[in-house]
Amino acid sequence: MLLLKNATIRSMVKAGTFEGCVLIRDGKIAEVSREIKLPESADCEIIDVNRHLLMPGLIEAHCHMGITEEKKGKEGDDCNETVRPVTPMLRAIDAINTMDAAFSDAVRAGITSANIGPGSSNVVGGQFAVVKTCGRRIDDLIVKSPSAMKVAFGENPKTNYAGMNTSPATRMAIAGMLRSELVSARQYLSDYEQGKAAYSLHYEAWRPVFDKKIPLKAHAHRVDDIFTAIRIAREFDLNMTIDHCSEGHLIARELAREGYPAVVGPDLTTRNKIEVQNVAFKTAGILADAGVMVAITTDHPVSLIQSLPLCVGLSVKQGLSLEDGYRAMTIHAAKICGTADRVGTIEPGKDADIAIFDGNPMETFTKTLMTIIDGKVVYRAGKCV
What is the DSSP letter of 271? Predict the structure, then answer.
């Protein structure tokens, strides 16, 4: 057992903080209370948090950590299978290298889980997975796999395939190819259940999408691409997250009425494409104020994974409420990733994924004092003094 006492707890179960203790047993949060007394015979490590901030481990809702590895060039880049525009059967877990330096950077930043998957070169890129950020074997780190099906609209699929004299070369082709794939997948699933079709790894990848166990993860920056993604999700009655949502602030009320959550960013980067000309840190706050559930992404390695709390802080600076800032990298990120049953709050029964900071993690000079994953201290920056 591990007892964290004398902590300023931001549980994310409700707003604000309170002074208290957290008891961890067998990798799970066992008790959260203002005071926890243990029998003298209890075999328990006790850590005095010294009134520092204790909160859920941070969650990156969209990145390519370990798939696009740092410092390895082409040899370490497994992000995009740019020879076929529709590849739903690809699985992130088959390409994530946990030895990528970004994993240790994430741990030192208090990030305890990340939603990792293919890039946006393909109309259908493949399956994301939510994994813990500390460990050697990816199979031991999985929180949810698959967690989403990546689809992409706009410039990236156009750019990657237009020069190959094949589709898609236009936004019409992207939408048409995705519709065609969804029609074929839906027909296969029906035929397979009736014994009329042989097993297909390609189309079986769509089963959790049509069963609404995972969402489409739609790469969409521009207003028209966002509305196309919504049109297709509505047409096939699918769940979806809108990832990047760079022009979301221009249509915030419409997005709130539609009800799809947004993973906003990366804003800490250059406007290097036409479709990201309206990227701004104000987007998250405008969307949240309109009623859209918002998480923030670094899109690592587009911006570095350890900049996640800084990106949230810059969004707060530009209008996102402080409480929504905390939610964007904890409980809202967990809900968007489909992992809120395990992470995102400090409450009994949840995984003991915890970050301890010497201040607000969104502030530049705040230090991560301790990172705990599954009840184990995986990073410690001296004592909590």
Answer: -
Beta bridge partners of 4: 22, 47
* Rounded-to-integer distance, Cα 30 and Cα 171, Å: 51
Contact 253, 72 (CB under 8 A): no
- Check if the beta carbon of residue 378 is closer than 8 Å to that of residue 45: no
On whether the CB atoms of residues 263 and 300 are closer than 8 A, the answer is no
Residue 111: partners with Cβ closer than 8 Å, 6 or more residues away:
57, 58, 59, 60, 133, 305, 306, 308, 355
Could you give the CA distance from residue 336 to residue 328 in angstroms, rounded to a whole number? 10
pLDDT digits (tens, 9 = 90+) for 20-69: 999 999 999 999 999 998 887 789 999 999 999 999 999 999 999 999 99
Q: What 3-state class would DSSP assign to 371?
A: strand
223 by DSSP, 3-state: which? helix
How many C-beta atoms lie closer than 10 Å to residue 291's C-beta?
12
Name the amino acid, one letter, at 363: E
Token duo for residue 322: 């402080």
156 membership: H or E segment, kind and range = helix 155-162
Please state, in angstroms and rounded to a whole number, the distance separating the CA atoms of residues 99 and 13: 33
Supply the mean pLDDT for the chain: 96
Taking phi over 0 as left and psi of -120 to 50 as alpha, with beta for the rest, 282 belongs to alpha
**Going along 133-279, which residue ranges are E strands?**
142-152, 216-220, 240-244, 262-264
Q: Which residues contact 61 (CB under 8 A, 6 or more apart)?
A: 115, 263, 295, 296, 297, 333, 336, 337
What tens digit of pLDDT does each residue of 327-359 get? 999 999 999 999 999 999 999 999 999 999 999
R_g of the chain, CA atoms, integer Å: 21
Quote the pTM value. Answer: 0.96
3-state secondary structure of 167: coil
State the DSSP code for 57.
P
- Alpha-carbon torsion angle 315, 317, 318, 319, nearest 10: 90
